[in-house]
Amino acid sequence: MLKKYKLSFDIWGLLLFLIVMIPNFIWFAVPAPNDILRADSITGTIDTAASVCQVLMVAALCVFRNVESKRLCVTPFIIISAGCCILYFASWILYYVGIVDVFVILGLVIFPCLAFLFFAVDRKNRIAMIPISIFTICHLIYGVVNFVH
User: Fold this and answer.
1) What distance in Å separates the CA atoms of residue 120 and residue 56, rounded to the nearest whole number?
2) In angstroms, rounded to a whole number, what is the distance separating the alpha carbons of residues 65 and 54?
3) pTM of the entire predicted model
4) Residue 146 in contact with residue 41, Cβ under 8 Å?
5) Does pLDDT of 37 surpass 70?
6) Alpha-carbon gap, residue 64 to 14, rounded angstroms
7) What are phi and psi of 29, to 5 degrees?
8) Beta strand pairing call for 64-66 and 5-7
9) Which long-range contacts (CB under 8 A, 24 or more apart) does 9-13 make?
10) Tell me: the pLDDT tens digits for 86-116?
11) Distance (Å, rounded) from C-alpha 81 to C-alpha 96?
C-alpha cells in the first residue's frame, strides 16, 4: 500500500484545514451568545486523542500523495466536501445567532470531519483516512457527552 504514496506537499489539504478553522479562529476571538462550547470538557483523554489525530490528519492530508490520484478538480467527493464545509459554516452561524440545540452541535462536530473524509477519499489518501476516522469518533464523543443533553 505505501508504494502508492509519495511525500509531496498538497496545498489543497492545508487549504481545506485552514478553511475549516476560520470559524474556530473567529470563535477564539469573539465569544458567541449562549457560548456553551467554552465550558470545561469532561472528556479530557478523548480530547487529547482527538488533538493528536487532528495533527496526524492534517499532516497526512498535506504530506502523503497517492500517485494514482489525479489533479484536483470538481468531482462528486469534492462537491460533497465543499457542501460539508458550507453546512459547517451554517452551523456556526446558527450557533452565533443563539441557536444551540442537538442539530447545531452535531453540525459543528460532524460536518468538518466529513469534509476531511470526503477530501481524503477523493485524493485516494487512505493513510489520512485512519486519523480522520479516529478524530471523527473522538470529536463525536466529545460533542455528544459534553453538549447533547
Assistant:
1) 13
2) 18
3) 0.93
4) yes
5) yes
6) 12
7) -90, -35
8) antiparallel
9) 9/62, 9/63, 10/61, 10/62, 10/63, 10/65, 10/123, 11/62, 12/72, 12/119, 12/123, 13/58, 13/61, 13/62, 13/119, 13/123, 13/128
10) 999 999 999 999 999 999 999 999 999 999 9
11) 23
Q: How far apart are CA 105 and CA 96, in angstroms?
A: 12
Segment holding 110, helix H or strand E? helix 102-122
Q: What is the CA angle 143-50-96, rounded to 5?
A: 40
Distance of CA 65 to CAs 33, 68, 128, 129, Å? 41, 9, 10, 13
* Contact yes or no for 135/54 (Cβ under 8 A): yes
Q: Please state the φ and ψ torsions of residue 52, each to the nearest 5 degrees.
A: -65, -45
- For residue 149, pLDDT beyond 80: no
Residue pair 115/77 in contact (Cβ under 8 Å)? The answer is: no
Q: Which three cell numbers stand for residue 21?
A: 478553522
